Amino acid sequence: MHLFGLLVLLACFMWGTPPGDPQAQEGPLPFTVDPRKPVLEDNGYFPCTDCHDNDSQKSNPRVRKLDDEHDDWKLNHGDGRFWCLACHDSENRDKLVNRAGELIDFNASHELCGDCHFQQFRDFKLGIHGKRLHQYAGDRKLTACAACHNVHDPSIKPKMAWQPPKVRTGLHMSEKGVAHHD
Amino acid sequence: MTESKNMTRRRLLQVLGIGSGAAATLTAASSKLGNEDLRMTMLDALGDMFQNHFKRMDKNEVQETLARMERKYAAQYQKDIKVSANGALPNTRYGYALNLSKCKGYRACVQACVAENNQSRDSEIQYIRVVELPHGTYNLEHGNHYYEGEVPKPDHTYFPIQCQQCDNPPCVQACPVEATWQEPDGIVVIDYDWCIGCRYCQAACPYWARKFNWNEPQIPVEEINPETHYLSNRPRPKGVMEKCTFCLHRVRQQRMPACQEACPTGARIFGNLLDPQSEIRQVLAHKNVFRLKEDLNTEPKFWYFTD
What we know:
heterodimer; A: alpha+beta; two-stranded parallel sheet; two-stranded antiparallel sheet; 7 strands; 23% helix; B: alpha+beta; Alpha-Beta Plaits; 2 domains; four-stranded mixed beta sheet; two-stranded parallel ribbon; 9 helices; 13 strands; 15% strand; globular
C-alpha cells in the first residue's frame, strides 16, 4: 500500500516535469536590436550635427511650421501633441532624450519608445511584438521599432492587399464581393 | 481464397519478370547505341515506376531518388533544382502563433508562400487563406475570402487560416495508402509520389488546408525556388494533394517560415514548443490564446491570440 502511494507521488512529480531540455532556462532569450544609425546615415539624416551644430544652427524650442528643412515630415505622433524636442535632445543633437532627461543613443531608440509604450515594449522584449530577423532560434536579432513605424507618424497606414484567390468553380461573386453557390 | 491469392502472386511475378526483362533489354540496347543520356532516362523512368514509399527507403535509396529527381527537374525546367531530404531536428516540436490584432489582411504571407513553395500559378493553389470578417465575430461562415483593394477595411478583421499541423490529424487517418504522416517534429507531410489523389484527406480536414492539383502545376521557370525538399516544396505532379508544411525545408535549417518572414506587421510567431526560451512559448505563457475548432480534438499546433 505504501509502495502504491509512493508510486502515485512519483507519478505526480513526473507529470509536472516540463518537456524538452531540463537545463534550458525559462523566459525569452537576450536580444540585440538591428542598429538604426547606418540606415539613417544612408538616408542622409545622420549625424544630425552635420547641420544642427548648435553654432550656426541653434536649437529653437518654439513650436512652428517647418518650411525650410524636414517640411515633408508629418508630426502626427501623439496626434500632434509633441514637438521635436520631446524626443530629440536640444544640446546633443546626435542623441535622443527621454522624459527623465537621460540621453539615449539612436541605436537604442526602442528604449525611448518603451518609455511611454510600455505594454508594447514588454511584448517586444518577450518576442511577441515586433519582428525577429533571419531565424527563429539561436542568435536573437530584432528589428528596431522605427524599422516598421515611421516614428514621426507611427500608425501603420492602409495599403493594397495582394491579389485574391480565384473564385472556386461552382461559386459566383455577389455584388457585395461575397462568393455564393449558384 | 488460397487459389486467388496464388493467382495474384503469379500475376505479380509475371509483371515483374516482364518489367525487369524489358529493363535489361532497354538498357542493353541503349548502351549498345552508345547513348548514355537515353540509358539514364530509361533507367530513371523505371526508377520512378518502382520508387518506394519515402519512409521505407534506406539511405542509399533516398540519395538515388533525390539524384533522379534532380535530373528529372533539370530536364523539365532547364534549371538546377536541389532536392534535399533533411530529417527533423532533435528535440523539436513546431508551433505557430498568430496575432489577430496585428493582421491587416495584406496577404503578404500568401504571396511569399506561393513563391517559396513553388505553387502552381495557374490553378492558384494557395496554402494560406485570409478571411475577412466583420468586427465582433469570428464566425467563419460570414467571412469573405475574395476581398480586394486597400486593407484593413474599416470595421473588419482578418483571419488567416492554413494547415494547423494537428497532433491528432484527421487527414492522416483518412489516407487509405499512408501517403501522409506526421514527422517527429510535428509537421504533417505528404509523399507526393505515393499519393493516389483520392482527396479523402481534403474531405477529412476541418481547416481547408489540403489542396488538390487538378492540372499539371504551372510555374514560370524564372520564378522557381531551386532550394527544395522531398517532403515540401519540390515541384509536384498533377493529381496529388499538397499542403502547408510550415516551410519544412527552411525551418529544419532554423530559418523562419516564408510567411513569417514576409509578414509586414509581425503578426506571425513561429518556434520550437520544446524550447522554453522560444518566442512561441512566451506567447503561450503571456497571452490568451485559442485554437481553431479545438472542440474537434484535432490538437492543432497553431494558436491565435489578440493583443
